[in-house]
Amino acid sequence: MDHAPSRRAVLGGTMAGLAVPLLGGAPAARAATARAAGPIGSGWTEIFPTYSVHQPPDRTRHTYDAATGEHHFWVFDTDPSTFPGQDSGPRSELRFHNDYTSGDAQFECDMKIGAGTHRMCVMQVFGGATSATAFMTLAMNTDSINYYDSTTQIYAPVYDKYIRLNVVHETGIGKIHIFVNRQYRTSFNDRGAATHYFKAGLYGRAGMSARSDNHIKNIHIYRK
Predict the structure, then answer these.
(1) What is the DSSP letter of 16?
(2) Which of the listed ranges 4-13, 80-89, 91-100 does the model predict with the highest average pLDDT?
(3) Which of 34, 35, 63, 184 could disulfide-pair with 164, CB 3.0 to 4.6 Å?
């Protein structure tokens, strides 16, 4: 079972390099801070990997607005599988070519999940020894993002508003740490050594909503 460290462990101890103040003030002030924020912690170098767009065959389910830097992803539960026989459902997502096997990696973005989006993976860390992925967070009809499709909630509410999501992977200790709007939420064990990379957008699971939408912008990837 994965266990989240205490607040003291996050702010000092093995995650000292990730320490950030827990933000107070009004929600609007927190949101403004989140939009302007950079990586969690110090010592990071931003990298600029290319990415591939994965969509259902013969479908357009992704647009990019160069003026705003916003990616819009949408899928229907009737769309064909993107990789028949290799996945659980249709997807519209970005596969970042930031492959790594060691060190620390961090994904950062502003994300707005459309109301009603259910059982859709919105971000994942690919690669594991005991599973295809090290981490997934799914949008669920509880207006939340959860750990995989479990009842373990990471953050709520999420529908129809931007949240700042930071996902930090420390391969040396096999941990993935989640921050939303600059506030530490929880940590999970990864699933062992592998070649890892980030993916974000929409990836359908059994029982997914009839239509799902996700908007992502201000994407940054860091290494150290």
Answers:
(1) G
(2) 91-100
(3) 34
- 199 in Cβ contact with 95 (< 8 Å): yes
When computed from its CA atoms, the radius of gyration of the chain, rounded to whole angstroms, is 16
Q: What is the DSSP letter of 114?
A: P
pLDDT for res 85: 80
**Cβ neighbours of residue 158 under 8 Å, at least 6 residues apart?**
111, 113, 139, 143, 144, 145
CA–CA gap between residue 180 and residue 173 (Å, rounded):
22
The end-to-end CA distance of the chain, in Å, is 28
What's the pTM?
A: 0.86
Q: How far apart (Å, rounded) are the C-alpha atoms in residues 63 and 113?
A: 15
Torsion of CA 15, 20, 25, 26, to 10 degrees: -80
Neighbours of 224 (CB within 10 A): 14
**Tokens 């029982």 correspond to what residue?**
207
- Tell me: the pLDDT tens digits for 130-174? 999 999 999 999 999 999 999 999 999 999 999 999 999 999 999
Tokens of 76: 């229907």
